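[Automated response] Your request has been received and processed.

Submitted sequence:
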Amino acid sequence: MKDEGYSMRLQKEPFAVVAALCWAVTAGTAMAGPQSVVSPSGHAVIRIDDDGSRFSVLRRGETVIAPSPLGLELDGAAAFGALVLERREDTEVDRNIPLVATKASVARDRYRGATLTFRETQAPARRLIIDVRAYDDGVAFRYRIDDPAPVRLAGERTAFVPAGDPSCLATEFDRSHEKPFERQRISELATDKGYDVPLVCATASGRTHYAVTQSHLQGYTGASLWRQGAAMQVRLSAVPGREGPAYVSRGGLRTSWRVVMMAGRAGDLIASSLVGNLNPPPEGDFSWVKPGKAAWNWWSGPSKGATADMDAFRRYIDFAAESGLPYALLDAGWAWGSGPCCEALPETDLTRPVDGVDMPALVRYAESKGVSLLLWAHWKHMAARMDEVLDTWVRWGKRLKRGLASVSTHPATRLLPTG
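Generated structure:
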């Protein structure tokens, strides 16, 4: 049933053509029973119970995620009471998104979506919104609360119950996100520690490989997965050392997306643009970003006992040049007083290399080989004197045609003072 809110529009953009079909229905017989959102090809399906309490995921008729809990755990407020589906709004999107620095120059963003608005059956009749999307290569959902008051969360009730007891590649949750993956069944995972995303599994038939993960964390918080029986419970990451709720919004609520990527082969998950598509496209001029592979002294190791000197750094630059790699990354240990690894030592000085290293000369040597340098730096050392550090790095590369600087994410900063 389509009401007066039905509309169809075709929007043309410089980099994309978007076709969206939207309609809304009000509570009644049209919404009785579980609410299904089916991907454009019909291969992927996500179902939400009509009281907003559970979801399940299927691919090509096979259950991937068995009925699993949904919901929020509020802090300082009464829990949501029984919910009823008040409104459903559907949309269908097919557009191309330009990419900045990833595995392709453009991503096709094609999905069917629904916004499900649930209302408490008793006073105070609060509303909980669940946005749902079904792509051919996966599904996603997130929670929203439109009330402008700040929302305090103790956590989420969200959990994923993999169908059967699948074999998975799991990695322990660690703030560095650098733990190795091990193959284990869900029943073999520990219950006293968390696991990082993605959790990559295969159904018993082997016809579907899938990854449980998250997307668009901006303005929200990260999470880990903890086994509780057959379920992998989402646990929000609170600010370290801070007591109280795991998350406090500035007003209203929009969580990150909970995602299940799916494919016929595990390798096909690599090519998926699903996680990126669930994030808003970046805004700004990124013409200066030049993605590429790097020769990395930390990765190539052994780092223990390795010396930071001109000869060692030149060897990595030579290797990058001979291998056709555009970058050489000099990891921890190049800066004066930085020590052999990653701690934010108080004596570290990012405006000075270690004794015996002439950084301007090294930049010129790299340029002569057609290689650019990336320098690892701890964010704490950068934040305290960013202008001074960046100005110094520009001077180190002042003979080059142009200078670039790029800051990466926690736990460290990588900068590119070269062309």
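Summary generated for your ticket: The chain has two domains: 7-277, 294-415. The chain is about 15% helix and 40% strand.
If you did not submit this request, please reply to this message.
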